Recover the amino acids of this structure.
């Protein structure tokens, strides 16, 4: 009796999968993600975006293999978000999935323009080491979410292109054409007040202050949580002046008084004016994740605010290392312009 | 009748200040070539007993050290801020009932073009207004060292006893007016907490973070019980762990590279065997007592010590300071 039931169930499952493929016209895509060196890229995210903009995502295995089954037949954009500092975002539009068929689709990730700097295998190793960490959101004695700890930052998996005023668009194109020659980092200057580099950040949170420590100049940022206002007539600085307030369990950081010398958003490097305002919204839904929504407002540069949505991963066993740019500035020699 | 009596007593008391103690007075003014210096610390050290008497100059630079026992004194004014040199005048004679006049003219140092000591003195003026109150405490009962602090130099620095090679290097550095110091190249200059500028301490249960306006801008001191790593790569700032001895935080740092120049305006060389011990104590709201010991059997004959008292700097903030953007050192040091 039990055997009959099992057989019936198996038959039902078979029928169901056949029906799904046949009825809805579904297919699958399988493949392997490698680096440009031919090494597997374990744990990377592979996304299929349909014509309506809906994403189906899977995480590649430790051998870099992936399989997205049960995709309605149609045309997709297959993408792999940027990971680490070296590997560029991969995107291939116009990939056709046919009903009842499995498409084999191998992906080779290419370095970005500054590709020789950094080592993404370290990024992936650390990411894969902590990605299954589970637990509740830690809280401060006052009951606020506690963001303190070591975090591995990540980029927005689906960045939307910025809409810029003509002068800014022109300047941005010039930077891209020159492979970002002359970016402030290459002269050991602070580059980006948006804290979007896919590196480590350490957060130290007290009742009145939130500090970010990081391995790039200027190595720290203070966000005042003590209720103070922005100064009335501040000197503009690379990192600006940051204050924060709580909206329930979300910490909203507001930064103004930025100079116009920094280049915004890692691997994007947008220009801006001193009117720039950066709003960051931090939430920690569980132990392992920090969600940050970044909004860049600058009416003299952007037609509409630029947004980025990133998720950082908690990496409690890691540490910020001393990084002294002036001692170890390899940018000049790696850049094609030396 | 009564009023006359009180006045007579006061007169008697005033004169007895001289006659009973046999005390003398050193009086004068502290100035720089461009004007008086307020809030300078003046110290008179008695020759035979070594006892030190201190006072502070008023807003017009005037000072008076009273009730001094007879004898010869070493009168000194510690460095002020970044540019004003330490002043020392030996063999100042004090006689009972007499006033010794001493006008002190401070001089700017070798690197005197850098920095602005008026700002330092302004901050010191704010510190003077901090109310007398006990040190704040953490949830676990330990003193909370958090705050923005105005660093300070040791008012009585001892000359370091160096091994011959180190002495030779130090003499070379002095002879060239410290022009090759790492901070001149926007590198971290000095891992010791001896620069008389602002420090912010962010103190949590497991971690003390120090922020400052020089490279590398921050320092972490782990208070979570971890040990030093076994085989760490040497770094400019080393690896720091802290533990409490009652109300004193004892910070132990190893893992240094040998590139930094130690102690502000001193520039001592050292090896990778350098071991730094700092003892931080907050006796009240407004003060942080910092005792520093540097051991390095590869460079020092005996440990080098510095003893400093920092002041809370209310309303002050660490400012963004980007050396690579604003490096005036080479031209000011005559390198350009």
């Amino acid at each position: 009796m039990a055997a009959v039931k099992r057989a019936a169930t198996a038959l039902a499952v078979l029928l169901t999968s056949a029906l799904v493929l046949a009825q809805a016209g579904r297919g699958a895509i399988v493949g392997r993600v490698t680096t440009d060196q031919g090494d597997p890229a374990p744990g990377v995210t592979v996304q299929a975006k349909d014509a309506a903009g809906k994403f189906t995502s899977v995480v590649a295995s430790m051998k870099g293999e992936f399989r997205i089954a049960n995709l309605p037949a149609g045309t997709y954009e297959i993408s792999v978000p940027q990971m680490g500092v070296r590997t560029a975002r991969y995107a291939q539009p116009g990939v056709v999935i046919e009903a009842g068929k499995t498409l084999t689709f191998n992906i080779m990730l290419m370095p970005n323009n500054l590709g020789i700097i950094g080592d993404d295998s370290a990024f992936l190793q650390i990411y894969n080491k902590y990605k299954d960490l589970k637990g509740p959101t830690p809280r401060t004695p006052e009951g606020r979410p506690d963001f303190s700890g070591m975090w591995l930052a990540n980029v927005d998996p689906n960045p939307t292109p910025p809409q810029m005023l003509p002068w800014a668009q022109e300047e941005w194109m010039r930077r891209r054409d020159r492979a970002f020659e002359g970016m402030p980092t290459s002269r050991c200057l602070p580059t980006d007040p948006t804290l979007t580099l896919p590196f480590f950040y350490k957060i130290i949170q007290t009742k009145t202050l939130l500090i970010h420590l990081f391995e790039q100049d200027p190595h720290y940022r203070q966000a005042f949580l003590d209720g103070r206002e922005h100064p009335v007539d501040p000197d503009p600085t690379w990192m600006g002046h940051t204050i924060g307030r709580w909206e329930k369990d979300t910490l909203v950081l507001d930064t103004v008084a930025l100079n116009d010398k920094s280049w915004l958003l890692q691997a994007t490097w947008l220009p801006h004016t001193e009117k720039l305002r950066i709003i960051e919204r931090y939430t920690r839904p569980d132990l392992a994740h920090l969600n940050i929504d970044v909004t860049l407002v600058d009416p003299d540069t952007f037609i509409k605010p630029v947004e980025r949505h990133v998720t950082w991963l908690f990496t409690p066993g890691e540490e910020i290392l001393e990084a002294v740019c002036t001692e170890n500035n390899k940018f000049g020699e790696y850049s094609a312009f030396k | 009748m009564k009023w006359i009596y009180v006045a007579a007593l006061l007169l008697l008391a005033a004169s007895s200040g001289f006659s009973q103690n046999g005390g003398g007075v050193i009086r004068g003014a502290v100035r720089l070539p461009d004007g008086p210096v307020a809030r300078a610390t003046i110290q008179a050290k008695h020759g035979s007993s070594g006892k030190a008497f201190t006072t502070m100059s008023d807003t017009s630079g005037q000072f008076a050290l009273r009730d001094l026992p007879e004898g010869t004194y070493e009168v000194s004014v510690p460095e002020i801020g970044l540019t004003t040199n330490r002043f020392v005048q030996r063999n100042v004679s004090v006689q009972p009932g007499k006033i010794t006049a001493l006008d002190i003219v401070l001089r700017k140092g070798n690197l005197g073009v850098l920095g602005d000591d008026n700002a330092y003195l302004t901050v010191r003026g704010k510190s003077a207004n901090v109310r007398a109150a006990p040190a704040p405490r953490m949830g676990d009962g330990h003193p909370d060292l958090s705050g923005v602090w105005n660093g300070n130099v040791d008012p009585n620095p001892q000359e370091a006893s160096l091994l011959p090679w180190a002495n030779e290097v130090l003499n070379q550095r002095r002879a060239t007016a410290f022009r090759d110091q790492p901070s001149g190249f926007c590198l971290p200059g000095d891992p010791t907490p001896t620069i008389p500028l602002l420090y912010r301490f962010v103190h949590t249960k497991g971690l003390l973070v120090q922020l400052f306006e020089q490279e590398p801008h921050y320092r972490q001191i782990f208070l979570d019980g971890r040990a030093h790593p076994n085989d760490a790569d040497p770094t400019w700032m080393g690896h720091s762990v802290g533990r409490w001895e009652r109300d004193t935080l004892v910070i132990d740092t190893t893992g240094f590279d040998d590139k930094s120049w130690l102690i502000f305006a001193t520039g001592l060389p050292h090896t990778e065997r350098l071991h730094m011990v700092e003892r931080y104590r907050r006796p009240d709201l407004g003060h942080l007592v910092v005792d520093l010991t540097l051991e390095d059997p590869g460079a020092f004959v005996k440990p080098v010590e510095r003893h400093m008292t920092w002041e809370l700097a209310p309303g002050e903030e660490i400012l963004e300071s980007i050396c690579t953007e604003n490096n005036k050192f080479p031209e000011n040091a005559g390198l350009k």
